[in-house]
Amino acid sequence: MRSITSRRNVIMKAIVVFIITGLLTIPGYTLAGTSNISSNGTPHHPAFVESRDDLVNVQVAHRSSPSHPMAPNTADVNIIELLQQLNEPLILGYLENLTSFGPRETGTPSCDQAAHYIFDTFQNMGLVVRYHNYTDATVSGSNVEATLYGNDTTNIFIICGHYDSVAAGPGADDDGSGVAAVLAAAEIMRNYDFDHTVRFVAFSGEEQGLIGSYHYVQDAYNSNESIVAVLNADMIGFTATGSDGIVGKIFENPASEWIVSFTQDISVIYSDYIGIQLFPQGETWGSDHYYFWEYGYDAVFYHEYHFNDYYHSANDTIDRMNITYSTRFSRLILATLAQMAQQPVQQRPVLEISSISGGLGVTAQINNIGDANASDVKATILITGGLFNLINVQSTSEQTVLNAQGSMQSKAMVFRLGKILITVAADASNADQVTKQATGFLLGPFVLEVVIAP
Fold first, then answer.
1. pTM of the model
2. Is residue 415 in some structural domain?
């Protein structure tokens, strides 16, 4: 026979179970779905790295992208003048000099000799040059950077390639072709004035896992440098057939799609001098643009259309390259860089998630800290977790125009129990997406103990 106390305990347990069950069965609100972004890859990757998982996992706070240069509409006689100076003997000369050092594996004397050659070449051009030295657990080395200062020294545009190669061969296409494009651009652009600052960068440590560019971008991020666009040239000199000589690939992440459009406009406007049509490929991790993406900078990766069969071998030599194609591809990158460096910077909105708070539901505040109005703004709050991980509630707020320096709020209601993860995303048709996460505890309709993730 049960005591009165025992029966009371049973009744209380039944009431608790009833309440919890009720909370778990109340449906959440789902107003909109999220989109998925697919991406294409390329066989190109560092020699000693087989997977993106082998690279450094970068976790940094979101940085606001600077304003983009305005896209060109018509041909510029100054750009044509630059293109006419970039010829096959110039590209071939740089290729012959680079490959004369033999295989240029990072950490070897031949790689150091190539670095000195690049440094001296930049210095003889009258540019401001420095070694960017790095020490890593895998290898130590030096990047070489030359700077052509513009009237505006704040906004920076970068053209880059990697001068190291595998031990097996001289790396004519991988990536002598990209470094030749960098050197040729520097040789030509040094004689002109530009509105914005241009950097010409040759990385080492690429084949060991993008090590040189990782340390370079990390330092740039920590210095809060305003890098507007990065044009990475890696393997732009091989064609398997005649038809390959008029096409190329460009890899981009969503934030960098504007560079793709800009480059495609350049290829059309100056088609008589370039003659290459670019095909966007989406994202890939296999070259020195990758860590620019990871640190929030806009960058693209230019690549030949047909992958080089002699890649990472002793047969990656000049005689197996198409110098005409390499020259035209280099012109495309030069024209894109020069046009960007002299174009007015377009005012644009910049979204920021300034707060995530609890109380009755979740409230997020989104600010436009840019210098232009944001159009078609969408803010989404996703709440997941809870007891037995059964909460998956999403709410979306939309606003047609969010004025510069203006703000909006988005709110999500949910009625459950347990620890939750809150993810807030905001984007606009003319602004980059921003995201922020927080944790909290849900007690019925009340959200408590909200802590924003670093």
1. 0.75
2. yes
